[in-house]
């Protein structure tokens, strides 16, 4: 199920679990009035006591007269950063992000003169922002006529999101440009390319999400890589917030040498009621939507004969993106470069009131229910997946286009893999990255794309 059209910052994909753990509530309470706070909170408590990964810490009873959002936050385990209670009619329950509203992200960092400087980090292809000529690395002089700084960048960004339009002055351009609301479906594969370096043929691919449209785009990219006889693959997941497990399985099937369709792709470990379940490549691929469903052998046909894979990561690499990194490790060496990932190592599903008539209309619970492990039983990366080689994209400014060989993450990758100009890369001065003061992408992290648990 996908709710992205309603909730820009909470795109949940996959197949909603059936009531395989039992839908019976744990306790009987008075019949509260439909849609009352007491009814909503009672339903939330019962659901969390059954499905929640940390259900052992959920109390038997709390004052049901609290605001539902406050009530839900009381129930959450201190370790839980991602479970959510959402009402589509109440935007405050799922604060929208800049990128999902206006089609670009930005950061503010401390410049050499001690002042804050604001820069574009990402522009959604096909968006109004892209059409107006915004580029990654652009320095923003003013936002709605105001010079951005550490003290005001949060309010300037929030105002732009609320208005769904913004006027920018860019350092390299004369005059101002107006950027309107994002009105296109984001393309998961932003770019891919093949280049020669150090006598090797490299394939580079920037994947910004594991949404369903990625399947055909990935097949197109890997077909090109195969035609070009790519020897080394660089998969850029630095901003990838996650998405669909079946899409992640499809990508892994195209990469992992020797993996068979009956092999385990992911293992789900839940609370005492949920237990443990293993899911094979074949099972996950079988859950792809009918329009993009392919067999394991069809995906495996795109394999490049890789002996390893290089994956670029950052603090915004999350959920299904982290799952992909971890799930590939039993099948081939994974060299992770960049920064530690976000640490979303859990799966969730949506809980709604499916009764007719509904007693708790519109409210939706997205509880974390399973920890994720690979086929070797390795997981527990809630603190993030640490890179094998550290690199900071802010160490070389302005930010370079994705796939540019001077990008610090890709430079480090070439140095590690023995690509051309290795001596020059290693001789380059190690510049200290500036202090980051604000990052609009953090809003995406708080509503990151949850992994939905498969049914039986």
Automatic annotation (TrEMBL):
Q: Does the keyword DNA damage apply?
A: no
* Gene3D superfamilies linked: 2-enoyl-CoA Hydratase, Chain A, domain 1, 2.30.42.10, 3.30.750.170
> Which residue windows are transmembrane per the record?
none
Q: Which residues form the PDZ domain?
A: 102-157
Protein's GO biological process: proteolysis; signal transduction
Ordered alphabetically, the record's keywords are: Hydrolase, Protease
GO CC terms in record: outer membrane-bounded periplasmic space
Q: What GO terms are given for molecular function?
A: endopeptidase activity; serine-type peptidase activity
Name of the protein in question: C-terminal processing protease CtpA/Prc, contains a PDZ domain
Q: Record the organism.
A: Pedobacter westerhofensis
């Amino acid at each position: 199920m996908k709710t992205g059209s309603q909730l820009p910052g909470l795109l949940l994909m996959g197949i909603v679990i059936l009531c395989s753990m039992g839908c019976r509530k744990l306790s009987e309470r008075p019949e509260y009035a439909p849609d009352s706070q007491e009814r909503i909170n009672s339903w939330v408590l019962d659901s969390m006591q059954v499905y929640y990964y940390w259900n052992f810490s959920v109390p038997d009873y709390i004052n049901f007269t609290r605001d539902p959002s406050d009530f839900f936050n009381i129930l959450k385990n201190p370790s839980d950063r991602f479970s959510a209670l959402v009402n589509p009619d109440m935007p405050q329950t799922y604060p929208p992000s800049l990128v999902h509203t206006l089609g670009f992200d930005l950061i503010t960092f401390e410049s050499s003169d001690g002042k804050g400087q604001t820069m574009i980090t990402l522009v959604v292809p096909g968006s109004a922002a892209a059409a107006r000529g915004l580029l990654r690395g652009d320095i923003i002089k003013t936002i709605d006529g105001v010079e951005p700084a550490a003290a005001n960048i949060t309010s300037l960004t929030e105002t732009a999101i609320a208005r769904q339009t913004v006027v920018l002055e860019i350092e390299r351009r004369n005059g101002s440009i107006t950027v309107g609301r994002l009105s296109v479906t984001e393309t998961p594969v932003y770019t891919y390319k093949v280049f020669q370096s150090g006598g090797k043929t490299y394939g580079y691919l920037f994947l910004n999400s594991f949404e369903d449209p990625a399947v055909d785009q990935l097949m197109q990219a890997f077909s090109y890589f195969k035609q070009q006889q790519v020897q080394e693959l660089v998969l850029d997941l630095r901003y990838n917030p996650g998405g669909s497990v079946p899409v992640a399985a499809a990508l892994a099937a195209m990469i992992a040498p020797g993996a068979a369709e009956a092999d385990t792709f992911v293992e789900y470990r839940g609370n005492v009621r949920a237990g443990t379940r293993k899911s094979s490549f074949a099972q996950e691929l079988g859950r792809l939507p009918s329009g993009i469903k392919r067999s394991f052998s069809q995906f495996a046909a795109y394999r490049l004969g890789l002996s390893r894979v290089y994956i670029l990561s950052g603090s915004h690499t999350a959920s299904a993106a982290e799952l992909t990194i971890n799930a590939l490790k039993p099948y081939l060496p994974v060299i992770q470069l960049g920064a530690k990932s976000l640490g979303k190592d859990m799966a969730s599903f949506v809980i709604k009131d499916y009764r007719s008539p509904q007693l708790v209309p519109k409210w939706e619970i997205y509880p974390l229910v399973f920890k994720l492990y690979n086929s070797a039983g390795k997981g527990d990366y809630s603190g993030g997946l640490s890179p094998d080689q550290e690199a900071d994209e802010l160490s070389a400014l302005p930010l370079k286009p994705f796939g540019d060989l001077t990008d610090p993450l890709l430079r480090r990758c070439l140095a590690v893999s023995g690509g051309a100009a290795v001596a020059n890369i290693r001789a380059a001065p190690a510049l200290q990255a500036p202090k980051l003061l604000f990052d609009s992408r953090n809003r995406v992290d708080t509503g990151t794309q949850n992994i939905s648990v498969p049914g039986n």
